[in-house]
Amino acid sequence: MTTHPSPTPTPFATGTDRSAELVRFDHVTKRFGDHVVLDDLDFAVAPRRHVTLIGPSGSGKTTILRLLMTLLRPDEGTITVDGDLLTHERRGGRLVPAGERHVRAVRRKIGMVFQQFNLFPNMRVLRNITEAPVHVLGRDRDEAEQRARELLELVGLSDKVDAYPGQLSGGQQQRVAIARALAMEPRVLLLDEVTSALDPELVAGVLDLLRDVARSTDVTMVCVTHEMSFARDVSDTVLMFDQGRVIESGPPEKIFTDPEQPRTREFLSAVL
Ligand code: ADP
C-alpha cells in the first residue's frame, strides 16, 4: 500500500452516481520494480466525455491506456469500464483477479487508435475495417461491409475502399485506423498520440475528423497527447498528471488560460 494520501476523486461524472461513469480507476497503483508509476490513482470519466491526459513525460499517461487495454494489470486497485470490472470478476461470491475470458469480454468495450496506425498491410482498407467485426464480434460479412462503407464516408475515404494501406498517406492511414476502431462499436475510444507520427500538414485534417467523431458519435474518448492544440480542440476535460497522480483537472479553457497548480503552469509554459 502506498502511504501517500489520495486526492479527492476527480468528479467528472455527474454527482456520485457511479452508474453514470464509463471509466473508473479506484486506488490504482502500478509499479515497475521500485518505481511507483501510478500512485493510488482515482479518477472517473462520464459517458460521452472527451478527456485528454497531459503532463510531463514519464508521468504515467501511457500506462493508463495500457492498463485499459489490459496490456498491463495494476498492482493494487480496480478499474471499471461501463459498469464491469476490468481487473476482477466475481467467482463464488468472491472478487478475484479477472481471468482471460472475462478480460476479453470487457475489453471489447474499448477501442484504440495508435500513433503508428497498426493497419494490416496485406489487407485492403475495407478488409482492415471488417476483419475484427466479422471474426471477433461474429458479424455477418455483408453487414460489416455496409457499416465499414458508412465509416469510410465519415472519415472522408469512400474512394479508398480497395486501396492497400501502403498506397495511402499517413493521415489517410490514421483515418482508416479510426474507422477500424469505431467499427467495433466501442464505448470508450483510446487515442495514443494519434497525430504525432503525421507530417504537420496532415495533423489538422485528423484533428477535424476527431472533432467530428466526438460530435457525431456517443463514444467516450480518453486521449494522451503532447499536442496541446489537440487537447484544447478535441477534449472537454483535461487531466494534468504529475508523478502518477492527477494534480489538476478542468475544461481546456480553464487549464490552458488559468491553471491553479504551479506545476501545471510550469509544464504549460514549457510546451506552449
Ligand atoms: P508518459 O506516458 O506520461 O510519458 P509512461 O506511462 O509511459 O509515461 O511511463 C511512466 C513511467 O513508467 C516512466 O518512468 C517509464 O519509464 C516507466 N515505465 C513504463 N513502462 C515500463 C516498463 N514496461 N518497465 C519499466 N518501466 C516502465
TrEMBL record:
GO cellular component: plasma membrane
UniProt name for this protein: Polar amino acid transport system ATP-binding protein
Gene Ontology MF terms in the entry: ABC-type amino acid transporter activity; ATP binding; ATP hydrolysis activity
Compartments reported by the entry: Cell membrane
Tree of life domain: Bacteria
Main localization of the protein described in the UniProt heading: membrane
UniProt KW Transport keyword: yes
Organism: Allostreptomyces psammosilenae
Location of the ABC transporter domain: 23-268
Recorded family membership: Belongs to the ABC transporter superfamily.
InterPro entries per the UniProt record, alphabetical: AAA+_ATPase, ABC_ATPase_HisP-typ, ABC_transporter-like_ATP-bd, ABC_transporter-like_CS, Ectoine_EhuA, MetN_ABC_transporter-like, P-loop_NTPase
Membrane topology recorded in Swiss-Prot or TrEMBL: Peripheral membrane protein
Coiled-coil region list: none
Keywords in alphabetical order: Amino-acid transport, ATP-binding, Cell membrane, Membrane, Nucleotide-binding, Transport
Keyword ATP-binding: yes
